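We were asked to recover a plausible sequence for a given structure. The inputs and outputs are reproduced exactly as logged, with field labels preserved.

PROBLEM: sequence recovery
POSITIONS: 479
GIVEN STRUCTURE:
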């Protein structure tokens, strides 16, 4: 829906959007060039374009388009009610919704009505209601229902067998004030410099059964400098305006394509984007503060879920000191022979986490036997790099190239600079890709997966094969 000179025009499909663009460009004799790249081809999302007439003012400032040609960032209230599904502890399917209304909606599964309850009340920083419901995957399968609908839209569901998994990480657009006062600035309004929307569209076109984000969603920590065309309109801070620009707007095609597993990154610590994390994405039941607002916790315990015969273990590594106790809990709690680990910070590749403050971490004895852990997926380093080891350690696969400004130096230089003399070095990386993109795991046969690295447009850059037999170290062959 677009507001134009007092009339509201509903955009039903792509042809309506295209037809309306010319009318948007001319209002009251002035030029209104709002962010055309923000009109996504997703029927569940409605955008608003607010235009003003420039009465003697600089038209490039007033229209939001600069002389450099950048498009401004999406503004507050551009998203209609949105909904998605995610997976949580003990094989729970979670329905989440962000609502403009205070009352939570009701989902429908066959003949069953599922009432969503309030997860987060509106507040000045987060003016929309967050709603949720939880369903056991086993109970849903036994019900025989074909799906779940909310507001007339079918929500993505997890199939009984996983065939394709998309993995992405480190996706937000960086605007950060350094300790010396200088602003570290990524060009958030340049789709080439910050291509998360492109990455999300390409990943959605894979038609995955599951999406796993390995952390770091929120990067807009400082205001856009005055007069800086490349980020004009960007919102900053831990609030809805910033979260919708950094994550929900660009992620929408992929968010509606499949259920997600969300992994917490260091950008979601309480001092940064933690309150938005717990309000929107964290899979655990919400904890409320004394004033009834959603609370932020520095550390949360790991959780596990089993899908298609695979055991996924999710670790909160926002604080790197939480990795070691989380590994101990996983190793002592699961009787299944093989585990897959997902966390934000790499810890097996000595030196890869150059921000780590808690010292080296290794797998506990209960997880250290060959084949006990099939693979470790992480992010944090803004690159795609897959490491193997000469000893019994499983491969560690870094997928941190989803949109955030990429590393300026090769991973090998970082490893050399921050190497730990007490830990063996990794083998030379099997794969290194210094551009934006994502990874895909494709099931080929029992214990065999194809692992591919894709660029922002979906082109396969590297192709490998994982052999994950129980009792044997995972083998990766690339060609």
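RECOVERED SEQUENCE:
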């Amino acid at each position: 829906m677009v507001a134009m000179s007092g009339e509201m025009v509903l955009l039903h499909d792509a042809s309506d959007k295209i037809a309306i663009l010319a009318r948007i460009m001319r209002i009251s004799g002035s030029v209104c060039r709002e962010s055309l790249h923000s009109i996504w081809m997703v029927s569940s999302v409605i955008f608003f374009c607010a235009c003003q007439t420039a009465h003697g003012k600089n038209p490039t400032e007033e229209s939001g388009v600069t002389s450099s040609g950048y498009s401004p960032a999406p503004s507050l209230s551009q998203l209609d009610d949105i909904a998605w599904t995610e997976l949580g502890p003990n094989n729970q399917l979670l329905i989440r919704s962000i609502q403009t209304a205070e009352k939570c909606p009701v989902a429908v599964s066959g003949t069953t009505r599922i009432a969503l309850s309030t997860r987060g009340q509106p507040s000045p920083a987060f003016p929309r209601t967050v709603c949720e419901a939880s369903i056991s995957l086993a109970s849903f399968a036994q019900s025989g229902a074909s799906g779940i609908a909310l507001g007339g839209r079918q929500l993505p569901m997890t199939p009984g067998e996983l065939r394709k998994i998309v993995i992405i990480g480190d996706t937000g657009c960086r605007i950060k004030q350094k300790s010396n006062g200088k602003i570290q600035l990524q060009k958030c309004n340049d789709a080439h410099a910050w291509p998360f929307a492109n990455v999300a569209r390409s990943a959605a076109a894979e038609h995955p059964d599951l999406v796993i984000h390995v952390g770091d969603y929120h990067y807009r920590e400082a205001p856009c400098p005055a007069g800086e065309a490349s980020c004009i309109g960007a919102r900053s801070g831990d609030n809805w305006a910033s979260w919708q620009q950094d994550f929900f707007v660009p992620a929408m095609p992929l968010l509606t394509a499949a259920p997600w597993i969300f992994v917490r990154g260091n950008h979601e610590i309480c001092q940064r984007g933690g309150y938005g994390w717990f309000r929107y994405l964290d899979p655990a039941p919400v904890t409320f503060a004394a004033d009834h607002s959603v609370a932020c916790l520095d550390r949360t315990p790991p959780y596990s879920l089993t899908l298609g015969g695979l055991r996924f273990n999710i670790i909160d590594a926002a604080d790197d000191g939480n990795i070691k106790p989380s590994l101990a809990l996983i190793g002592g709690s699961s009787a299944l022979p093989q585990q897959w680990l997902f966390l934000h910070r790499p810890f097996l590749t000595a030196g890869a986490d150059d921000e780590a403050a808690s010292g080296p971490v290794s797998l506990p004895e209960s997880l250290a036997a060959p084949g006990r852990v099939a693979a470790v997926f992480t992010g944090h380093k803004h690159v795609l790099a897959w490491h193997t080891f000469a000893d019994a350690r499983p491969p560690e696969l870094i997928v941190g190239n989803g949109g955030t400004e990429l590393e300026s130096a090769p991973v090998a230089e970082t490893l050399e600079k921050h190497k730990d003399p007490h830990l063996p070095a990794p083998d030379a990386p099997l794969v290194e890709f210094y551009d934006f993109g994502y990874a895909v795991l494709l099931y080929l046969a029992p214990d065999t997966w194809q692992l591919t690295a894709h660029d922002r447009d979906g082109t396969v850059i590297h192709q490998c094969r994982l052999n994950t037999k129980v009792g044997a170290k995972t083998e990766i062959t690339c060609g």
